[in-house]
Specification:
There is one protein chain. This protein has 143 residues and is an alpha+beta fold. It has one domain. Helices cover 29% and strands 29% of the residues. The chain has helices spanning 38-54, 56-70, 72-81, and strands spanning 10-14, 18-23, 26-31, 88-96, 101-108, 129-133, 139-141. A 7-stranded mixed beta sheet has the order 1-2-3-4-5-6-7, with helices on one face. A hairpin with a 5-residue loop joins strand 6 and strand 7. Helix 2 (56-70) packs across helix 3. The longest helix has 17 residues, at 38-54.
Length: 143
């Protein structure tokens, strides 16, 4: 499956102010203010999705930077073991056509199994960070 193609996403639900899709293990929400804006919002998502999807590595890197400052010892131990790059994953992406941005929900990567699982601290299940990609493509903390 070509993951940067929004047309491959499965519609999971249609609501009054957003539609919910899934592409692989990633949830995608496309926001709109009212039902009349649904079509335009979906078109915007189709148009922007390749760039939004391509920015996932940058969103994860920004989340790692934010979280590193909150738990430096945790990250230091994983950097020394060479596992720090695999700890995070994007769980969901919220595309907001009105604001012309995308917000990435980044948390633990459950697909990663560390060979050092017994020796290294586990990533806390309740920790997540939201990172935003602006209309200019710049990645940063959600504003």
């Amino acid at each position: 499956m070509d993951h940067h193609e929004f047309r491959h996403a499965s519609l999971l639900g249609a609501y009054d102010n957003h539609d919910e899709y899934q592409l692989g293990t990633t949830l995608i929400w496309v926001d709109f203010e009212n039902i009349a804006q649904r079509h335009a919002a979906t078109e915007f998502a189709h148009q922007e999705f390749p760039a939004v999807w391509a920015a996932i590595p940058a969103a994860i890197a920004e989340a790692r930077r934010i979280l590193r400052s909150q738990a430096p010892e945790f990250w230091r131990s994983h950097e020394e073991a060479g596992t720090s790059e695999e700890l995070l994953a994007v769980w969901g992406i919220r595309i907001n056509p009105t604001a012309r941005n995308a917000t990435y929900h980044v948390s633990t990567n459950y697909d990663f199994e560390s060979p050092y699982e017994e020796q290294l601290p586990s990533f806390p299940d309740d920790v997540c960070v939201f990172v935003q990609r602006g209309h200019d493509g710049v990645i940063g903390p959600r504003s």
